[in-house]
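Q: Got a minute? One more chain.
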Amino acid sequence: MSIIVNIYYTGKDGAARKFVEEMESSGTAEAIRREDGNLKYEYFFPAADPETVLLIDSWRDQEAIDAHHATPMMDKITELRLKYDLHMKVERYRSDEGGIPESDHQFIKE
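A: Always. Here it is, folded:
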């Protein structure tokens, strides 16, 4: 069962988007994507809120998250969060390994 963490970064004057740009241009985001146990590390921009960025971060298990938190990349992430004065809201979920129920397939266009 994987763990999905949604992190909403909010700042002022485009700070959250600048944070994402620096995470990507510095190679930090790509290095996280290559970590053992990382399943997804992608940023999204809510249409109704230009000052917020959503990170969907998915890991194989808690051990993979713990290993990630022990890497030097966390120092870089913390440094950038402070640089851009970002505030965070975090949601955490466990995946449904049973997949999408058959009754829901009628609403999905593949």
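A: Residues 35 and 68 are 7 Å apart (CA to CA).
Q: Perfect, thanks.
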